Amino acid sequence: MEVEIKLDSNYPQPKLLILTAAVTDEVRALAEKLSEGGPQVLSGIREGKVEVLDQTELIRVYAAAGKVFAVTPKGEYTLHLRLYELEPRLEPRSFVRISNSEIINLNQVDHFDMSFTGTICVKLTNGQVSYVSRRYVPKVKKLLGV
To answer: Does residue 62 lie in a domain region?
Structure first.
């Protein structure tokens, strides 16, 4: 896909135009993503209170015991969204799914340990350790350029 940016003072607000020979799934997905307007607000419940969560502070989001939890430096929150509903709301350059039950914030990763056979160990900045499931290893390796 070719991307071109033209500066024109006649457009105080950005205007996007997609030129294509046919409307493919890729074009539809791109148009939908652009019209969403960016990441949406996330809220979590902790100690009976609903709090707005800052995506930059999220360390990991995981599913366990039929619930979805978000971990931040302030603590752990319960979310009322499923992981598949949450994933499109998260900044795609910062968050990556590492298993069917977990999404991590790449900006909160201390390091990746590739010495395990068939999987990748992820050490997070808060000291927690997670593992990339075999199904997601190729995606994570590609993302890391390994």
So the answer is: yes
3-state DSSP assignment of residue 73:
coil
* Helix, strand, coil tally for the chain in percent (to 5): 25, 35, 40
CATH number at residue 63: 2.40.50.1020
pLDDT of residue 44: 94
Q: What is the pLDDT of residues 76-110, one digit of tens each?
A: 999 999 999 999 889 888 999 999 999 999 999 99
CB-CB contact of 105 with 70 (8 Å): no
d(CA 146, CA 142): 6
Where in the sequence is the domain holding 65, given as residue range(s)?
A: 42-144
